[in-house]
Amino acid sequence: MPPIRTAGRGRKPPPEGFEDIEDTLLEFQNKMRDAENAPHEGKKRYETLWPIFQITHQRSRYIYSLYYEKEAISKQLYDWLGKNGYVDLGLVAKWKKQGYEKLCCVKCIQTKETNFRSTCVCRVPREQLKEGQEVQCVSCGCRGCASSD
């Protein structure tokens, strides 16, 4: 997560309304720092990134809900947050499309990185899975983000 930046040389100050969400963004920043510094012994290489993906998702969902659902922040502030890396704009763009409302990360819908040129297993609706079958995404640790769930 990018550090909270203040107005300085060559930087614009944050738009009005940033003070209202700054505390929550600082909490996300602290969680991210803890996730990055957590011990990785005994975990598989890809499992070490799961908390980082999840915190990024939570932070992006928080800003998405403030702007699109609650209309609590201005367009100017939303654009500034996107430009400064507080929100994953690619993920938010997918959330606005039908069928992707619960998408966990953009990596799960990229077909280039899978063996059979298909989406991730977490995108399969639970009704189509065998009874008692549990799935977990290798890239982000999601246990199911299909919109029909």
Automatic annotation (TrEMBL):
Coarse class of the protein's main subcellular location: nucleus
GO CC term (a single one): spliceosomal complex
Record bears the keyword Nucleus: yes
Identification of the protein by name: Cell cycle control protein cwf14
Leader peptide range in chain numbering: none
Keyword Plastid: no
Taxon lineage: Eukaryota, Fungi, Dikarya, Ascomycota, Pezizomycotina
GO terms (BP aspect): mRNA splicing, via spliceosome
Organism for this UniProt entry: Lophiotrema nucula
Transmembrane regions listed in the UniProt entry: none
Pfam families with a match to the protein in the record: BUD31
Key words, A-Z: Nucleus
Protein family membership: Belongs to the BUD31 (G10) family.
UniProt subcellular location: Nucleus
